[in-house]
């Protein structure tokens, strides 16, 4: 038997219902998985009444955000306020992508990593996504290669590129925005009378 008679081996697929590596198919298994993930992610990204980000930040914390972008991004309240600002600039997807990448890095279960990586790809990297983030072709090609065997660090280069974009582009505008300036104003003491 010659090598011409052997059928080419199909690439291994982690998705048992189809051979599409990016899970762009519309099979029922994929749709249910997407609905579950979307509901989970949306509940995590919405402000919660008891979360630390909902408590008003101290004046010192607000002032520290102007010292460095890292301080802003390490503060839950800072990320919340900055995300609201990005929403007004129609670039909230940058923060959502960064948060999704941070969440992916905490995952140890390979099956969950595979699913989250594919959904991050579909939501923020795919050119078909309405929430596509701006990535250069080198980074995008790297992600496409890594998606063959996703890991918790598949999007590290892209996450750094988006972090840098927010730092250089949106962060200076945020610091001069009415949103940030209002937080710097002294807040009147709240009355304890009902």
From TrEMBL:
Keyword ATP-binding: no
Family annotation (SMART domains): RGS
RGS domain: residues covered: 68-184
One biological process term in Gene Ontology: negative regulation of signal transduction
Keyword DNA-binding: no
Keyword field: Signal transduction inhibitor
Organism domain of life: Eukaryota
InterPro entries on file: RGS (IPR016137), RGS_sf (IPR036305), RGS_subdom1/3 (IPR024066), RGS_subdomain_2 (IPR044926)
SUPFAM superfamilies tied to this protein: Regulator of G-protein signaling, RGS (SSF48097)
Stored Pfam families: RGS
Protein name as it appears in the record: Regulator of G-protein signaling 19 isoform X3
